[in-house]
Specification:
It is a single chain. By secondary structure, the protein is mainly beta. It has helices spanning 9-24, 108-116, 125-135, 177-185, 213-216, 357-360, 362-365, and strands spanning 71-74, 83-85, 90-103, 138-154, 160-175, 194-197, 203-206, 211-212, 221-241, 244-266, 269-276, 302-315, 318-332, 336-340, 343-344, 372-375, 379-382, 386-394, 399-408, 420-430, 433-442, 447-448, 451-457, 462-468, 481-492. The protein has a single domain, classed as monomeric porin ompg (Porin), CATH 2.40.160.40. The longest helix is centred in the N-terminal third of the chain and has 16 residues, at 9-24. The chain starts with 8 loop residues before the first helix and ends with a strand.
Amino acid sequence: MDRRSGTTMTLAARFSALVVVVLYGSVIITAQSETSDFARIGHAGFILTTATDYQCVGINPANLGFVPEAQIFSLATPMMGGSERRRRDWAFTAIEGGFSAHSNALARGDIFDLMFQSSSGTFTSAQKQAAVEAFSDGGMRFNADVIAIGASYQSQDFGGFALTVRERATGTFILNDEAANLIFKGRDSPYFDSLAVNWNGDSVAFATAPKYYSELFDGTVLSMLWFREFAGSYGLKILDVAGVKVYAGATVKYLESYAYLDARVQQASFVARSALSPFFGINYGKATTPSVIPGSALAPIGTGWGLDVGATVEFDRWTLSASIVDMGKMVFDGNVYNAGDTILNGLSSTGFDGYNIFNEAQKITGDGEFFKWEGLQSADAELPTRIKFGASFFYSYRLQFGIDAVASLNTTAGSMSQPVVSGGANYRATPWLKLGIGIGGGSNMGVFVPVSILFSVFDGFWEMGLTSRDLVTYLVNKTPVVSLATGFLRFRI
């Protein structure tokens, strides 16, 4: 039996708004997130040992070496026929993936407000203070991972191949106390102790003892990355002896980036770099750069290469897997800027009046004068390299148990703050219905309960499903993990 089978513009505008806020937060944000592994339908608490065909790209390419087999759900008897499905070697998909956002500062409704920009209300003074308290040493992380198109073939004798095109974006902002006050209170922040009126009649707050960004926001980090990935993968069974099977695989990636931000204040040292496509229309004030990209098109601002490697071992009913993903680097050579450390003084904004970033961001971006920007010809950065381990136990064709763990190997845009560990069970209720549930924790998300449902119809030819990172979010309002991955165009031939 087969132990593994069965397994626009408006949006761009919203993403642009997030970019603007993260740009302002280049002295106040920390970003680590790892939810992309859960943007595959049919998987909940574990995936490293079970994902195969194009779904294992970016997770564990060794699983492309799995040899497809017929699925046998029940054996024939003299009185009745059995239940089975034929072997399927090819798999295709389009628009499979999803998003995830989690926060230890926002309630569930506020996350939906931020994501869909639905609020039209205005904060009261009490609500501003509540926001400051919530975001002091707290914040929000988001992740998006969509396979625009994917295809794979797994042979009986010479391994498996996969080609995919993915859109990947990740980012986070976490504010310390000073940052939260400045964001939500603006000129009313306790940092300022005097007030004046400028030539335009606007009230401007000043600090008689001004501080550098590196003093105000020490210990905070910004990190955001959005790129398109073109990947080719190969996996092969390299050993089959005495009931032990060993698989190995690799993925080579070509990357085009559209947004990159990485800023850190660590040990009183402030460093910030930015490279954003001209589509976002970010204003850097009087600063110029030799790497300018004119116009307003969604043009790439950098390219790079990446490599994934993985291995899987099967023995008896157990499967063990390990992989290292996203080794490599990006080189940014378009719209590249560096922000130097400078004194923060003179602020006229009253701060955010709500969580509707699309409306609020313009209050703090101004004309770019808050930051000392200077242009760069180019800049490079490592990819957020991660190491993954997984184990699963095949109890029967109906039931599997497994556990996964993932951790960052470096500190760069998109890397994780903490390891993530999760485990769970997959249950095939019928040949056409597979359910998954798990439990996990890490990466400042608290405890989460991933769930999945997969429909496999027309003898397994067409599969569709939903996966959520956390069921508890829809039951409890605090520390939400809002997540949804979908796929309705997965075909196996």
